[in-house]
Design goal:
The chain is mainly alpha-helical. Helix content is about 55%, strand content about 10%. A hairpin with a 2-residue loop joins β4 and β5. The termini are far apart. Keywords: Chaperone, Stress response.
Amino acid sequence: MSDPAAPGDPASPDRGPVGVEQVERVLADFRQWLLAAPPNDDGRTETDDGRPPVDLFALIGQFTALRHEVNLQTKAARAAVEQNAEVLRQLADRDEEPEPEPADDDEVLRPAVKAVIDVADALALSHRQAEKLRDGAAAILKADAAHAARPGFFARLFGAAPAAPPPDLDALRKLAAGVADGYALSIRRVERLLPTWEVEAVRCTNEEFDPEMMEVVEVVADSGLPAGTVVEEVRPGYRWRGRLVRFAQVKVAR
């Protein structure tokens, strides 16, 4: 319901209906007021107190950007909290796990001890082969010398000098002897090294067979020794720090 018109107002019922001229004058005054008002940068007029009107679209855009930023910050904070919780859980699990026991010195040194034993076996085998070669060459030279000491009929008839041994065979004998001596020297060095590693050989020859330290590779029938006695050692056995490292291979009397 509209307020009653003030006394003296042209629109008052006492004055009668408003004429066209009055309406035109009011519209002309309003038009002049609009034209006289200073425009803003965006073409909008200012309010009565000189401040620009509120831009609702810009305000909504700022609030939307603020909400998006708050959501991003919330996600980042949640991810950081979850990561810290996972780190704390892993640290707690690590504290509960038992510490690994230190490695046993025997297990660490066992491969090196076996390598030293293998070197000793290789040197012993090579030494035996060199001795066989030396002895074989010496036997051939001895046979040739005995044959040359008995000259034949024509040699006795014409007084020929005894034949000298073949130079190649004599050189081979000397070479085999030198190689055998070199292997023997190397074996003695390894034998001096074994005690420093607390390695000792298992005594076998002429000893009673011990199944805990020996392996039988052959049984000898006519050995002249009591049954169960080791006749020959085929491959030596070794103990390290009181424990068996390798069985000895032996021949045993029946």
